[in-house]
Amino acid sequence: MRDGTPLPQSERDTLCVSHSGLYAVQVTDSNGCAGEDTIRVTVRPAVDVQVVVRGALPRCEGDSVTLEAASGFRAYEWRDLLDSLVGNTRSLVVRKNGSYTVSATDTSACRGQSVPIAVTFHPIPRPAIAGATSACPYASMTYRCASSSGRMYDWRVSGGSILSGQGSASVTLRWGTAGTGRVEVTETVDNTGCAGRAFLDVRID
């Protein structure tokens, strides 16, 4: 019985309990002799493990984020989607896509687990500039990279000036005096903000 109330299915030598209270057991041996004992059981609340994701947005390939579990636990265990152990401290630095959970043990040895935390890193563009690597002084030339929808293109040039095409995948520029010039493009994905860069050195003579 618990707190003086009889329990169903309690006429066995073991009893599984899920509520706090004072439990009493009465036993009778084959000679009809009876005995009784009591024990107080405290069932602690389920351990709630919260996780905070720390890191700048957008999260692009090559970035990292930190998953930080709530404080106050004496042990932590991080696992990935394959159930591989990937960390055993309060925080976990993540650099690749995946789903992560943390199990935490409190000072009473009670254990809880967080909900899975999905981490996604968006790919970065890898532009390549096509165009001549040598030019005559004051020549007008066109440079381009592969065009993709939903992308923005920002061109920069040293040793010359852009005539047209800024913002597109192709620009026309005019080189200046003899020397070395450089054309550079930054390709940015509109919906993620992830960017990649490329440059091409040009001999002007």
Q: Tally of extended strands?
A: 17
| Rounded mean pLDDT score | 92
Helix residue percentage:
under 10%
Overall 3D geometry? Answer: rod-shaped
Q: Biggest sheet, in brief? A: 5 strands, antiparallel
Percentage beta strand: over 45%
Return residue spans where pLDDT drops below 50 for at least 5 consecutive residues.
none
Please trace the helix and strand order, writing H or E for each element.
EEEEEEEEEEEEEEEEE
Q: What structural class do the secondary elements suggest?
A: mainly beta
Report the total helices.
Answer: 0
How far is it from the N-terminal to the C-terminal residue, by CA? 99 Å
Radius of gyration from the alpha-carbon trace, in angstroms: 34 Å
Describe the structure in your own words.
The structure is a single chain. The protein is mainly β. It is built from no helices and 17 strands. The strands form 5 sheets. Strands 5, 6, 8, 9 and 10 form a 5-stranded antiparallel β-sheet that branches. The chain has a 4-stranded mixed β-sheet with strand order 11-17-16-13, with no helix packed on it. β8 and β9 form a beta hairpin. It is rod-shaped.
In brief, what are we looking at here?
The protein is mainly β and about 200 residues long. It is about 0% helix and about 50% strand. Strand 8 and strand 9 (about 110-115) form a beta hairpin.
Detail the topology: elements first, then pairings.
Layout: E1 21-28, E2 34-41, E3 51-54, E4 65-69, E5 75-79, E6 85-87, E7 91-94, E8 98-105, E9 111-113, E10 117-119, E11 134-135, E12 140-144, E13 151-158, E14 160-164, E15 170-175, E16 179-189, E17 195-204
Parallel strand pairs: 11-17
Antiparallel strand pairs: 1-2, 3-4, 4-7, 5-6, 5-8, 8-9, 8-10, 12-15, 13-16, 14-15, 16-17
